Known about the structure:
Layout: H1 2-7, H2 23-32, H3 38-42, H4 50-66
Amino acid sequence: xxxxxxxxxxxxxxxxxxxxxxxxxxxxxxxxxxxxxxxxxxxxxxxxxxxxxxxxxxxxxxxxxxxxxxxxxxxx
Length: 76
């Protein structure tokens, strides 16, 4: 999919989107830690707590910004 998107000159990362800035990542992480979302985090295929958001979700978002999939940590 990434190669196809590049072939048609479409953005392949969040960082390539016009108007995107790092503040969106911080805002998404803050929202994910909201106690009102705790039930949604627990019902994910791999349950997450707010304390695990930075450890697992942040690298996924950073990878989406840069396109560097090696940043993504696997959940044991």
